[in-house]
Amino acid sequence: MSLQDRLTELRDQGLADIKSADVLKKVNQVKVELLGKKGPITEVLRGMRDVAPEERPKIGAYANEVRDKLQAAIDHRRSELEQAALNKQLAAEQLDVTLPGRPAVQGQPHVITQIITELEDLFMGMGYQIVDGDEVEEDYYNFERLNLPKDHPARDMQDTFYITKDVLLRTQTSADQPRSLENHDFSKGPLKVLSPGRVYRRDTDDATHSHQFHQIEGLVVDKHITMADLKGTLILVAKTLFGDQFDVRLRPSYFPFTEPSVEADVTCFNCNGKGCAICKQTGWIEVLGAGMVHPHVLEMSGIDPEVYGGFAFGLGPDRFAMLKYGVDDIRNFYLNDVRFLSQFYKKG
Amino acid sequence: MRISTQWLQDYLKLDIPADELAEKIERTAVEVDGVIRPNAGQKKVVVGHVETCEPHPDSDHLHVCQVDVGEAEPLQIVCGAPNVAAGENVIVALPNSWIGNHTKIKKSKMRGVKSNGMLCALDELGFDEKLVPKEVADGIFILPEDAKPGEPVFSYLGMDDEIIDMSITPNRGDMLSMNGTAHELAAIYDQTPTMPTVDLHEDANDDIDDQLEVRIDADQRDVPQYKMRLIKGVHIQASPLWLQIRLWNAGMRPINNVVDATNYVLMQYGQPLHAFDYDRLTDGQVNVRLAREGEHLTTLDGEDRELLPTDLVICNQDTPICLAGTMGGLETEVTDQTTNIALEGAVFDAVKIRKTAHNHDLHSEASMRYERGIDHGMTETALDAAAAMIAKLGNGTVARGVAVGRDEDVQPVTVTISLAKINHVLGTDLDLTTVTDIFNRLGFSTTVADQTYTVVVPSRRWDIHLPADLIEEVARIYGYDNLPATLPTGQPTIGKLNETQQMIRDSRKMMESAGLTQAISYSLTTEAKAKAFALHASDVTKLDFPMSSERTTLRLSLIAGLLDDLAYNNARKEHNVALYEEGRVFYSQPEQVRPKEIEHIAGAITGSMVPKSWGVAEQPVDFYAIKGIVAGYLKSLALAGNVRYVASADHPEMHPGRTADIYVDDQLVGFVGEVHPATAKAYKVRETYVFELDLTALIALPKARQQYQPISKFPSITRDVAMLIDDQTTNAAVVALMRAKGGAHLQRIELFDVYNGEHVPAGKKSLAYTLTYQDQNATLVDDEVTQAFEKVLNALQTELGAEIR
Ligand SMILES: [Zn+2]
User: Can you tell me the distance from the alpha carbon of A154 to that of A88, in angstroms, rounded to the nearest whole number?
Assistant: First the structure.
């Protein structure tokens, strides 16, 4: 038998053996047996010395061709078997993906904080500074500097916790605004502040009253601030909190520290303005109070109302949360029932 | 303030649905609480004529009536009212009618006699008990003789009226009257209102001068005006029905013709008036002054009141007979026997009346108006109108002249404002014509020079005296809906959180990512709870006049509030709770009422932080779990100083063996540990772990300068050591020693086992650590590490008596 025929025979036998190997181990065994240093192909090449020199390149090339073919067949068979094994394993590894995942431990911000944070971010985006005043304030700043002298009838509207006759728990976060006004350097630009925080009123706690709640008050003072600017700002607040589809209306109101004073209503989200129990059949829900800063307030802070003017607004995050999420009892915010707190998952 | 739309027709031509009118008022003037329709939901209630009225055969108080209701046959109705009689016109609720607040009337039998409907009293038609005239309160209501049987009854009682209930802000006292509201609506709808006129006839032969003498012993500010009229020969009786209807629809109970006349004029003009029984005024003498300490007065309601020196009183011969502006005295009250009336029309100081109303808890229609101010220019007109009305209703005569205790020269207020200023503040571009028109509609006369208005404001709008007030008038009549909506322009400013605010926000996020949910508890609590868990001793800040004993004192710590929250949850079977709170505590400062407000952050965890789930065991929280949270949080703050945990038995509310004070270098910043079992029991919570940190202090502490450390390219070598050591020796001591002796290349010490169970002798524990050695600049040689490690082992043995295993 010529070397060439021998190689052909080895090739055909090898291909058959590879094809019939049904486990990886056998494939490896075939490889070692056929292509190893002591294997038959090496053996055939050793017999080259008996071949005529002019025939040798031809035989050599053919031997390499057979070796490559066998190697390719081995690789192919190996990958076939590996794939089959993997498929088998995957088939055995199926899970019930509907079983619950293992819980990651994660807390969340209080719903009131969520609302305050959302508004802080909105107003910081418009160049407002956040101001935190003291919760224990002087009567002078909480009332008098906001144009509410001792005998003002509007003081009846807010019953107050006093520590002494001159010191109280602030009833409004705007108590800090006179300080902002007197400390501001208007040569560096307008005053734009937002004061969120806790406030207190002398109320008996029930579903709609709480002796402790929150307020966010805003104040802008500059040489050219208009009521139209106030309107635009309030519309933005309402739409940010409640959504674009709602209308906003302004109504005249009264606050001693603003003139003109307005209250802002948004379309009742419950009935879309048709009238329901939540909006007392009016189709509107009152969400905030505002106005143009009263000239007396500016004067008391040493600011000339002929040159400067501004607007102020105030809103209650507790009330917002009640309206937005249909919370029917304000005490829920301060009892910290985890079944309540965990319902409001948004952002911190 | 209730405004009858029917009454409004006397003033204006308003062919507008009440709801639309209410909405317009709300958008332009004051808040509206709603539109009241007294006949709402009531049906088939008609006029009936009682033809016969016989006693019921089986009852001593019932009557069987045959009632003509405009049908072919009369209806038989059984009635129990004492005042039912043949010949009367009555209110009949027909069979299947609806009356009052959803009550259906059906045919029935009463003690065996058929009754086809019901004869009604006013309260059965939904009238507020407080508004029903006393003389008709105990029986059915008798309708006028000309009422037509079978017609719906509502128009006879004013129940077909639509009443707008307005909520008047303190500045709009002018709208606490029909006249004021009419002026307002006239401006809104651009009409000229028809105002009431006074038709007063004085008795030329009866001069007031010799009969009433009025003296004011109070200053001008307290009593700027005081006038009286005298009405003689008055016959006291019930008012005509039209007047009663106007009063009850305005929310006032009809009393008698004199009181009703004063209330009617009060509603018209907003001017409180008071009628005295003239014959009770000795010598016709009246003086007005502040009360003296210790004086008493029995008011109309029968209450004996001790007067205060801030109360203005009306006196007869210097004896108080009336609390000015709030309530009359019993002694001089108008009764059925009264024939001569001394009628007061006055202006009192708003603050004085407010104090009196507040101190005596006497809030009346009169005091409410005085507190908000009244029209000083209309006092005498209102006095005349009431005198004329009393004379007419009571067939009396009005004596000639007015007894004037004090008068004032009431002048309109003049305010100037430029058109430019109005547009500047409103952000509008209104022209002169538009603004002039608005002032005209409001009834303010104007002169314009150089684009600047001089506005003359009538006395009925005493709330207006500044340019800003005029801007509001223009804005609301022009309409807030018509204002443009813009955002402030001008020099841009940067809005960002300051360092404290940013750190508070970051701290909250850290706590939440560690698994704690934010709580917001009450700052006010009991004194005991306010003081509990305080980081430093301090006096507390207490309310002067608390609302309840539960909320008297400002907290010194957040933990007590969190424990209350945990107790609330535990009571509702929520036993796995992890809360944190970020908020203020209030430390008192020497010589100051106002406390120092410090931001704290605190946490409280009970039960398992990992919720129960398949394949995972619950992990009840322990000291090391909460300490891990605190340590992770403190690490995030990148403090420059060294954080230390020092065992502390100094907190009475905390477990003495499971509490650590937390120091940054030598500054105490907080504590962490288990709540004392006795405290836990007192707060009704289970085993609970807490921490509290002074956030203000942490924010102020220096922060580490952060700089990149190159990561060594050379391999590290580790050595493990396990030792038996005295139980009292702390991990901190072991680590400190290893650090001290570890040499330059010791990088990390990690504790990987603590054991003191079986095979460990009593009083000992087993600790095991991995020490990691690494050189930044070279490959460490094994021998070097072995030498360094030996040093550590020797030190542990000699200095801490450790037995290396
Ligand atoms: Zn609604």
Answer: 81
